[in-house]
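Checked the freezer inventory, then went back to the computational side. Two predictions to log before the end of the day. The first one is the construct we discussed on Monday; recording sequence and tokens without edits.
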Amino acid sequence: MKERLTQYKLHIPIPAKEETSHVTVVCDPSDYSASVLARAVEDVDAHLLELTTEFDSEERLVVDLRVSHSDPSSVVRSLERYGYEVTAVSGQSYDASVIPLDRLLGLNALLNV
């Protein structure tokens, strides 16, 4: 079984396209529903473009999603509201926003000293 990569970096067998992003969620096979995943994505005005599944070493289902937003932040929040565990995220706008957020958190830590 391929080892899962850390958050913000993931391996997906689907070629990248502009103006899309990838989100990986894990769940028990009994909790998996493609229609619920699609509803969670569509609740934030995004489209579910592609969906692939595989099992991890713990027999949990790993679901890779491609969505029609370059920044998947709203999709991630929606999936978490539906009870899915998001394990990896990749998107052009999302990746660019991670660095400023880290810098702001570091500045906040310095100011709170």
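The second is the one RB wanted added to the comparison set:
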Amino acid sequence: MIRILILPFLFNTAFADDPTGGYFEGYQSDCAEIKEHAESNVVNCNMITLKKANESLDNVYNDLIKQADKDQKTYLEDMQAAWESMKEAQCNLVKTYYVGVTYEKWTSHCQAVMTIRRVKELEQLGTGIMWGVYD
């Protein structure tokens, strides 16, 4: 009887090392050249990934702005500014999960993942703006 009560608690601790609850699951920085997972290497890899993601974000966003009408441009600009604030706040929150450790790794990963997700959001959002091009 005691084993049955303890067993669920043991399984719940399996995710104790991920205070984000798996939010970043499935998003990895693509740095095959890193052979050693020292923190500085991981941070550098995350920064490379973030740079690529920012370039993609700029391209997608600028394409949308070019195709958007006046009202849509205003909404896109407002949305992007709000997203930037949300990204900053969310990645700052992630920092608080890792008190006592170097959190550059987690902050850079957070920024990269959120930017990759934003690119996908804008790509999907862009289909509606592009419909107007075909009218």
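For RB: Confidence is low (pLDDT under 50) at residues 1-19. The chain is about 75% helix and 0% strand. Let me know if you want it refolded.
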